[in-house]
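Troubleshooting log. The previous structure file for this entry was overwritten by mistake, so regenerating from the original sequence record. Sequence copied from the archived sheet and checked twice against the printout by T.R.
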Amino acid sequence: MKTFPPRLHVLFAARSDQALVIRRGPSNHVASIAWDRRRDRFTLGQWMKGRIYERRCDLSPDGAHFLYFAMNGHWQSESRGSWTAISRAPYLRAIGFFTKGDCWHGGGMFVPTRKTETSRYWLNDGYGHHVVRQTSEVTRDATYRPSLSFGGECPGVYYHRLMRDGWTYLAHDKREAWKSVDVFEKTLVHGFRLRKIAHCETGAPPGKGCYWDEHVLIDPSGEERVERDWEWAELDGSRLVYATDGKLFAQPIDRKGLGAARVLHDFTPMKFEAVAAPYG
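Regenerated output below.
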């Protein structure tokens, strides 16, 4: 049976050098890892046996809190099988806990705030959550409403998060009954642009889920370089960072063009280990 490298998705803190890597693999194991982008240091948070829906997650602007939607299928448990949680990044132990009981909607994102304000979040409520535990460390914004509707699953959070983070929504292309793409683009530095092609489909290519991304890097002359295997990519200061083949890469951009890519971290060797959060 063919094996695939772990899938990686990264969340950036808007006002700090912190980021959080969500590593999935095998399919029913997921880990959260802190990434100090200034020093390029990586620190394991926690593992979970289950699924975190990375496209319905977010990191607070200061990097202190992680909002995520998860499922373990234990439908008769306290969690009701699926839940939205708020934790202290990079850990998963919930300080805010909202059970769901299904996989429609769920998760959410942080809304823009001033630096002096407590982080505020929007809960992707849909058919509703059951509030088990609230937290005063962040505040729910009950008035926020996304400007567009992208349905009740992952795009309903993910696409709004992209636009909040500076991506321009360009187009929607419905190719078949259960296959479509949405196209986003971001201006990088020194005339480069990055295009993100977000796929939504059944019968996805091997090793990919029903939601997956590919990228196109466009140089100042307009020449396009298709990167089908970049599952995540973003601008980090003056460098392009991207994930592929279970590894995180960085490639500097200056007036002369793209520099040499280097591996920041290889997440492939990681295996499940029980880690307790340093808070109750």
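The longest helix spans residues 155-164. Archived copy saved in two places this time.
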